[in-house]
């Protein structure tokens, strides 16, 4: 995965000019969803992502969570797939993200941050506890997705059986680079569309997202309600996100005001280290939340996440949240969650998860123990079980025995001749990769670096027609090839 935000498929209502946007941003929970999306810049640990033609592959088809105290199910999911679409478990947040960014709303998340769905199902069925008739366990929603030939999600529909939730439909268009051009979201109240939003995306010469704009359909006209801009480092890491909206303007005529700013730092491998968040409180854009992460070895998911929230009255950063993982081999077997006890002035445990794996090294069972002020429960309070199906992945392998290798992985460069871009495709993920383009006189024209990657794209649009040399390098070896720019 690239060291930048990946492109998702649906816009998020929270970017519109309404009071709910501010309300959601004032909660750490909403902030955590945003940070979860940023963490997906890091390569999600997913053994199913590589081409494995002819090899049996697992994908999740169901999940059940049981409240052991009540002896009843508290949540359940079933999924159906078509074709070779797969699922990926997110070890940053220790769950299958069935929708988008750990929210029940599969839309663009806060301030334009977005991710692709990690479980590319065609149908999703969800049962959960009914808060109005506890402990009643009821059917909550069904989701239906459609894809194009490149597995871009072109449409999505949420259907709710009750009258408290409105059904929603989403439609998306993509460009030739398989990045999203636009998204449309329509809300249906008792079958009648009563609101709609559009989001449009702009990209720089290297193909990275530099701006998105959100419009709301108001009294027969599309009105701009928000925009977000993005800036990057020379290595492609997303350094700053600036979000603008006007939450108090019901006429859609006042200028947009910056509501949020995110400033990010990374380690040498492109893994997220810190996120400094500023929030507009109606007067100033002030400090809000600071998130810090640490990692174990070369693993791409964090083993520690600490969060502090700023107290503007006392000018103090107060601890809020702490997740830490015990790693065995390359997988976490125990996850600890802590909150801050302001009386004891120390971190206080809130829960512990013990994770089991099946023979395919996929998460199988998660036992959650709650902390009762002095100790963890003797038996698990909640038990989550994942179910998988095995299918034969017939996705074409990108290599044969005649292809060169980089760090032991066979590499393919295409197309040649090229017009606007060159694809660098690997069969196995490599830790570090660089690509340098020279002219026939040996003059350096461009250079890019990536970390923990399996497929990248080189921009060739700026080159005049002619013959060039591209050098692909890792820490251990190099591969040089001529290509033609048409």
Secondary-structure blueprint:
Layout: H1 19-25, H2 28-39, E1 55-67, E2 72-80, E3 89-90, E4 95-96, E5 123-129, E6 137-147, E7 153-159, E8 167-174, E9 180-189, E10 192-203, E11 209-218, E12 221-232, E13 238-245, E14 257-266, E15 272-280, E16 285-295, E17 302-311, E18 316-328, E19 331-341, E20 346-357, E21 363-370, E22 382-393, E23 405-406, E24 409-414, E25 421-439, E26 444-459, E27 466-473, E28 478-485
Antiparallel strand pairs: 1-2, 1-22, 2-5, 3-4, 5-6, 6-7, 7-8, 8-9, 9-10, 10-11, 11-12, 12-13, 13-14, 14-15, 15-16, 16-17, 17-18, 18-19, 19-20, 20-21, 21-22, 23-24, 24-25, 25-26, 25-27, 27-28
Provide structural commentary.
With 486 residues, the protein is mainly β. The chain folds into two domains: 13-48 and 55-393, no CATH class; 405-485, Immunoglobulin-like. Helix content is 4%, strand content 55%. The protein contains two helices and 28 strands. It has a 20-stranded antiparallel β-barrel. The longest helix has 12 residues, at 28-39. The two termini are 28 Å apart. The model is unreliable at 1-26, 43-52, 101-113 and 398-402 (pLDDT under 50).
Which structural class should the secondary elements be placed in? mainly beta
The N- to C-terminal Cα distance equals 28 Å
What's the tally of helices?
2
Radius of gyration: 23 Å
Low-confidence stretches: 1-26, 43-52, 101-113, 398-402
Strand coverage percent: over 45%
- The gross shape turns out to be globular
Query: How many domains make up the 3D coordinates?
Result: 2
Helix content: under 10%
Instruction: State the total count of DSSP E strands.
Output: 28
Chain-averaged pLDDT: 81
Order of helices and strands: HHEEEEEEEEEEEEEEEEEEEEEEEEEEEE
Largest sheet: 20 strands, antiparallel, barrel
